[in-house]
Amino acid sequence: MTAIALDRFRWTLADGVTVVIRNLNHIRRAPSQLIADLIVPIVMVLLFGYVFGSAIRVPGGGNYREFLMPGLFAMTAVSSVAVTGQLVAGDVQRGVMDRFRSMPMARSAVAFGQTGVDIITGTMGLIGMALCGLVVGWRIHTGLWHGLAGFGLLLLLRYAISWLGVYMGLSVKNEETADKLGMLFLPVSMLANTFVPTSGMPAWLRFVSNWNPISSLVAACRSLFGNPGAPAANAALPLQHPVISTLIWSVVILAVFVPLSVRKYYTA
Amino acid sequence: MTEIQALARPTSARRDTAVLVEGITKRFGKTQALAGVDLAISRGTICGVLGPNGAGKTTAVRILTTLLRPDGGRAEVDGYDVVAEAEQVRFRIGLAGQNAALDEKLTGRDNLRMFGRLYHLSYRTAAQRADELLARFDLIEAADRVVQTYSGGMRRRLDLAASLVIAPAVLFLDEPTTGLDPRSRNAVWASIRDLVADGTTVLLTTQYLDEADQLADHIAVIDTGRVIAAGTAAELKSQVGGDRIDLVARYAADLSLAAETLSRLTGSPARSRAEIRQVSAPTTQSGLLTTVVRELDRAGIEIEDIALRRPTLDDVFLHLTGHTAA
After folding, report:
1. Is B236 on the interface with A (CB under 8 A)?
2. How much is the ipTM here?
3. In this predicted model, what pLDDT tens digit does every residue of B109-167 receive, in sequence order?
4. Assessment of whether the complete model's pTM goes beyond 0.90
5. What mean pLDDT do residues B301-318 have?
6. Is the dihedral of CA B9, B10, B11, B13 positive or negative?
7. Which of 157-196 (B) contact A at CB < 8 A?
8. Residue B171: closest CA among chain A residues belongs to which residue?
9. Strand pairing partners for B50?
10. I need a surface site. Which of A130, B85, B115, B220 has the fewest CB within 10 A?
11. Residue A42, burial from CB neighbour count under 10 angstroms (0-12, 13-18, 19+)
């Protein structure tokens, strides 16, 4: 019995790796796409850094571009919902998912593979954006371990959100719809402390923003990187403990959407 | 599972039956997609499931390929139950659906290798199998181009190749030639015939009567979720009656005389369709055609076209359902 279970686990892993390799092959077959993916963060850093930076005053003082970078990191982390959702929906729409499901491959391998590859591409994007940040004056002031912890949190929430993308893709079954729904997460990532301090928002908006998981992630990164814009002592509860609340958010999202997605895969 | 060959099959009393369907039902909301379908397909034959859009063909294929659970009834593929032994079934089937289920951003070779790996073939075997299939489906030149650049016919061939990665015992083809030009369609037909010659059993759905006629050993006509007739093409055709003589007169004025002549010679009333200047009548005598031509010539009736026509599956469908297949 355990031998069968072990075998099953081995195949799930092997099938997941095959799906990851499939997506990495996309980059190999169209390397120009990678260049486009790297240009986007450069444009965002310059656009937000210098356009907004010329007008926004960081609470407690400090360089706006140092305040901005954790926000931009978090915003790109949220984009995983659109990326993964579109990939999965495209597979359903073209019947590729049906072919997978008619094959003896492990049932959860597609979802684990698609979210797994998102970690790889997400890490590459993060590195690209961090390099842009370094050029415009952003620094990690707290040392290597705190810096790595910040990036770890970014990838963790990104991973959790990509499972939301899998579920969305399996549900809408249409590539364009998934893409448009994914775009909705852009404003969601801005309803937070991403680009501006929440202290100036109207009360109801401030409430929404403070409890937005993105705000926790951004606040956690600012504090771990030693960037300006730390929440005030009387800030909302999640912002007083941003690292823990980011961890909780990630676990909750995973606990909901991993089982939902795996179940949806059976019936999609 | 590292071998490409089909696995040893269970010793079953129905060794010669590759697909067995008994009373399958499926309902989607208010629509009864399948209302009790029965079907048996002998090993090494092609079964054509023929029916109009919405008849339930795709639902039946989805149940047999383990993508959908039936509400009632049971089905076996290669001796394994499609619900209780779904995993065993998946090791024995290939599926090519209505659209080419391929990764458009990968090359043809990438696609076949990926599917091979997902069938748990080793890297080397998967690569080797991909090469074999590319050669067999005449895709060697296009093998390293991304699928996005393929024509419709090439996609369909690659899709068919992908469904054959493990040399399945039973191959399910859901409208395999829909939307193809005649040349590509002939190529797909040829591939299907080759497969069956090698011992594969094929279930093929189609809304093209000539496709079922050309390919299938056995045809099941399905309409509104039920099999309404089954048999060989010849058996189905004989249900509608014998042959017909169809003629087209050059001048509309000759039509009534032509009909009269035809009725007299065949011994059964001829039917005229003035708008296309056509007269036709059923006949059971062989060799009557030359007599008809001679008699019409003697009467001075010029004819544009005359033929002895076997009834088509179109006629069968019309006869069985009261509506045409298209």
Report:
1. no
2. 0.88
3. 999 999 999 999 999 999 999 999 999 999 999 999 999 999 988 999 999 999 999 88
4. no
5. 82
6. negative
7. 162-163
8. A102
9. B206, B221
10. B85
11. middle
